[in-house]
Design goal:
Blueprint: E1 18-23, H1 34-49, E2 53-58, E3 73-76, H2 81-92, E4 96-101, H3 107-110, H4 113-118, H5 128-135, H6 137-147, E5 154-157, H7 160-170, E6 174-178, E7 188-190, H8 193-202, E8 212-216, E9 222-231, E10 235-243, E11 256-258, H9 265-281, E12 285-295, E13 298-305, H10 312-319, H11 323-330, E14 349-355, E15 376-382, H12 385-395, E16 404-409, H13 418-428, E17 430-434, H14 436-444, E18 450-451, H15 462-467, E19 471-476, H16 481-486, H17 488-496, E20 500-502, H18 505-520, H19 530-533
Parallel strand pairs: 1-2, 1-4, 2-3, 16-17, 16-19, 17-18, 19-20
Antiparallel strand pairs: 5-8, 6-7, 6-8, 9-10, 9-12, 10-11, 11-14, 12-13, 14-15
Helix pairs in contact: 1-11, 12-18, 13-18
Length: 538
Amino acid sequence: MESLTNQSFCEAEVSNRKKVIILGSGPNRIGQGIEFDYTCVHCAFALKENNIEAIMVNCNPETVSTDYDTSDRLYFEPLTAEDTIELIKKEMSKGELVGVNVQFGGQTPLSLAKFLQDENIPIIGTSPDMIDLAEDRDRFKKLLQKLDLNQPQNCIAYSKQQVLDQVKEIGFPVVVRPSYVLGGKGMAIVYDENYLLKYLSEYDEVFETGPLLLDQFLSDAIEVDVDALSDGKEVFIAGVMQHIEEAGIHSGDSACSIPPYSLSDEIIKEIKKATVKLALALEVKGLMNVQYAIKDNQLFVLEVNPRASRTVPFVAKATGIPIARIASLLMIGKKISDFKLKEKKLDYFAVKEVVFPFARFNNVDTLLGPEMKSTGEVMGIDKSFALAFAKAQLGTGAKLPTEGLVFLSVKDSDKKYLVQIASKLVEIGFKIVATRGTAKYLAENNILCTIVNKITEDRPHVVEMIDRKEIALVINTTEGAQATRDSFSIRRTSLMRGVTYTTTISGALATVDAIEAYKNQGCKFEVFALQDITPNFL
């Protein structure tokens, strides 16, 4: 391990070998976690196996990438332009530097790419210009138009007044987010002008780092993640993941399934075709992640990242394809044809579910949105989606109740799913309690339930029932600032009392199906070893 900090010169003994420098992700934080360290570690392993010196640069002692035996050489240094350039130039003094990998460590190393380019330091993989094209709203919009791909109506604002003017063109609801951020930091779904003015006052410094991006919000859309490999000429689709939560929830906070559990073959085919178009147009060499939304059977491109994404470890484990290792070799000149990659139809489902730190923080709202809040993830595998989802829920520490009282309270736009959910819950053996509006709707559809007061009404109310652990399951979806505030104590009390709850209607549908499948199996699971399902991976 070498260190340059506070030294007048570098004491590292540089080798004469062929080498690649990998820039790590630095400190773990929400939006940039250990998933990126995974890709860096597997990059180092792949390089070493191919007799190329793997040089790791990172400053986080809690990662695997900074273990003494992960790379051939470790520089434990701050990921700043000054420190990074100094050590790279030292390594360039001997041997052959194939290039620097800035694409596996998340946003931190990507932000250094321009500084490295200005110093004529070689960067392997997708060019920094193409990475910028995918981030630059104007350039990216022109690319999508050229490729005949749809995206939600959007625009760019460089001032508060421009935001107010352009929102009138797009219309509410609208997604607002700063440019060049990871983890959805500062991102929000805005439903009216008052909320927009409040957002602009809270994020007063937002225009200092770049423009504000405004997107039409696609209500009730299905979101899809795709991870792909490319050598610049050929593209391999590694995994198509359907999100359980609807669009509007940050992709890092949404549970997802490989393969998709409800998408048609036609839509999946269209998704793959669009992904190939994008990878070739961006001249991707290595990994690429694309996020799509499907609304009214129409496909929209939300975002393209020609770099490693946080879904890489999940895709690798679920499919048995070591995509981080393969991408590392594609970045240094290998071809897709060098690997025996074949798209295979999986006969099982792998579900990724996220872990939240809510219980550790007082008064934090558990309601999910466009800004990432999760700090970990688990995976469940089974022959059916429902059982895989059930395993994933239990893996997070959540409970799957099979009897008792269920509290239902959903926003008006979700009521079309209410009869389906309530009927199945009654069939399983649950009893329903609901607020007046929801209870009235259920009664009109011949579903018996008990009315319970809202927190804003007289006692006894629903929060007291949750606090006394009389409720086994909470399904509560909200819309609008006032309703969200009113239901905060429902979500918070459920969390603190260990009551299973869901705040999205798609999450509720999946949870009810999982409970039914779990109960039908006598609350027991068949165990599948990862080594048996993906024998070529380990």
